[in-house]
Amino acid sequence: MAEASPALAIDVGGTKLAAAVVEPGGRLVTWAQVPTPRELAAEQLWRTLDALASRVLDEAGVAAPAGLAGVGAGCGGPMEWPAGVVSPLNIPAWRSFPLRARLRERFGHVPVRVQNDAICLVAAEHWRGAARGAGNVLGMVVSTGVGGGLILDSRLISGASGNAGHVGHVVVDPSTGPVCSCGGRGCLEAIARGPALVAWAQARGWREGQQGATAKDLADDGAQGHPVGIAAMRRAGRALGIAIASAACLCDLEVVPIGGGLSQAGSMLFGPLEETLRAHARLGFVRQLRVVPAALGRSAGLVGAAALILAGDRYWAGD
Amino acid sequence: MAEASPALAIDVGGTKLAAAVVEPGGRLVTWAQVPTPRELAAEQLWRTLDALASRVLDEAGVAAPAGLAGVGAGCGGPMEWPAGVVSPLNIPAWRSFPLRARLRERFGHVPVRVQNDAICLVAAEHWRGAARGAGNVLGMVVSTGVGGGLILDSRLISGASGNAGHVGHVVVDPSTGPVCSCGGRGCLEAIARGPALVAWAQARGWREGQQGATAKDLADDGAQGHPVGIAAMRRAGRALGIAIASAACLCDLEVVPIGGGLSQAGSMLFGPLEETLRAHARLGFVRQLRVVPAALGRSAGLVGAAALILAGDRYWAGD
After folding, report:
1. Are residues A175 and A30 part of one domain?
2. pLDDT for A89-118, tens place per residue?
3. Complex prediction ipTM
4. Nearest to B317 among A153, A157, A164 (CB)
């Protein structure tokens, strides 16, 4: 029965916590999400997640752990991998939180695997989404941060410490770019992450002084014709185009699916991105590259977390 | 006997043609090289290479093909891979030259494999050089061009078309960088390749108007204190540092061996490289990265070509 059993998938992000029961084929049977609590301590956050998992299992009528093929979890980085000790930048309550060990305590006896959420995205898009059938893929998430995961020669790449895919720290403007939260200058993330775009736009008069304005507001205003909104999307698109050109030359990629909130900005973002990419990626072999919106939308994180279990031969290289 | 047989290794570059008989352990038994003839037609160039191969085989007392484990060849790119149809940028006589097919005609009955010369370098450094024991390596050649090859998760990465590793076209200065021969702007190669450094220095008064001045002259003059020579090496080092920082974040690398003529410029080059790399590569996992001169020097190309045969399980993914 283990073969046909579903997986429990968990997605821990700075904006939301989500859980789902996922069929072997990748379909979500039940799912639920809550906004990530901001003010909770580490243990309370864990209990919120635990309750969410119990809810989707109950709704699916699955007895855990007996009825499960395993538990896969995606979480914001950085993390110690494959130990699954997580310190997600956007969740200050969890610093060196032993997520994998806690999930094992809770669910025991079935495989429990934790991976970077951006790596889950690329696994999902490769398994069931926009990169299906491609052997060389950079999956990107453009949101509060800019993350990614690499599949090369049809294998998920881990790298020396499980951190391969950090495309957000590819340098796109070393001379005049802003300082990044990593301490470097001109990283893609320092320019294209949502909050950086909002700050850039507010410094140019857009919703000046308004607290809580988001990159979605900025994209929406751009779509309505606001020149700063349009310019901000162009700025992000250009930075993405340069980083993707560099990654494509280095890794000989076929397809780059882009997910995350900003990827919903459409041609305002993807137009300048394509233009910049084509201006820089001129070698014959990189001209074939396709940049596409991620196909799985909001469920990608959960589908990818499930893939760690349900297609672990391809998407899990840890212990 | 096949297991203990040596390989014939061939290295086709814009500056020299080389051949060697290489023992299973990686030692060169016999080797020979000639300057790459500039004025010859395709067939004459082939005959020159053929004669060079015959010479090293004779000197080693090896009867080909019976006494050979196979024939491995490294050649400047681009090429159709794994077909081994080569069009090396710096050898105009060969355009779509079927190097692998011709070697097969000549040597038949043993494996014949052709790969990009920069990929041979990384194979050599991983097999017998400065990257031995590391699982995640970007090998670089900084010379007339800037090339590279990637080993990730202990496997040589091919990419979609066998072109993974083109670090020379990572974008390091998109706003003010020079136009590259690929048509892009601000590629690493456009700044750090030898002839580009020479042109940059001559525009600043160094050996102004002198025909045939080389990057080696420039490095030598820098070592003697010439300020333009020093500034040119710093310029190359910074560009290399930015590209390596980007590659390290994307691929989670452990070691970057650098070969090619410019890598012999020593601390004048590696000092600014390290400084720039450390300024940009700030995430915890990239701080461990080591950048080192390639250990195998001029024989790296031949050792790597031999590795395509003698350690083909690790360094050859083609047919």
Report:
1. no
2. 889 899 999 999 999 999 988 999 999 999
3. 0.92
4. A153
